[in-house]
Design goal:
- With about 170 residues, the chain is an all-alpha fold.
- The model has no long low-confidence stretch (mean pLDDT about 75).
């Protein structure tokens, strides 16, 4: 599918071929392939909005332009055009929060960052809800109201929570 010409009407064979290409590209990184499948399941279950899904897939496939192009082939026209102008600002807010968190606890208490990473990992794996994530982070950052406020501001929109959580986890916890 990748690199091949696709007819206007996509078929289930086209989708299967594309999935095979993704699986092959991530054969040495099975967790990334599984994450891709989980994102697609979010579409089917309607548990995540389309813009967040597109954003997450674009981040996951950023080093695989052929796969990214193949993914865009399957998008409806409105999803291709419907890029939010605030996405860069949202990512900048996530980056700023991550930097503030690491800076604050670098010398005070490194265990806070470890605990934060464990919470983000559980959320990323689907073992807790958005509400549970917020409660755990509030407990973890107790007495650091400014960081709690910043976290809640960055994570206030449900559709952005999953993408931002993934980004935070990948940047801080690896």
């Amino acid at each position: 599918m990748v690199g091949r010409r696709v007819s206007q009407a996509l078929t289930s064979d086209d989708a299967q071929s594309y999935l095979s290409d993704v699986k092959e590209a991530f054969h040495d990184e099975p967790s990334k392939y599984q994450e891709f499948i989980n994102i697609l399941n979010g579409i089917r279950e309607l548990s995540v909005d389309k813009d967040s899904i597109v954003e997450r897939v674009e981040e996951l496939l950023e080093d695989h332009q052929d796969l990214l192009h193949g993914f865009h082939v399957f998008l409806p026209d409105e999803a291709k055009r419907n890029k939010h102008p605030h996405t860069k600002k949202k990512h900048a807010d996530v980056e700023e929060f991550m930097n503030n968190l690491k800076t604050r606890f670098k010398s005070i208490d490194k265990d806070v960052v470890v605990t934060f990473c464990m919470v983000m990992t559980r959320f990323k794996e689907g073992r807790m809800s958005v509400k549970e994530l917020q409660e755990e982070v509030i407990d973890t950052l107790y007495y650091h109201e400014d960081l709690i406020e910043e976290f809640l501001r960055v994570f206030k929109k449900k559709e952005f929570v999953i993408s931002a959580a993934q980004k935070l986890h990948d940047k801080i916890c690896k």
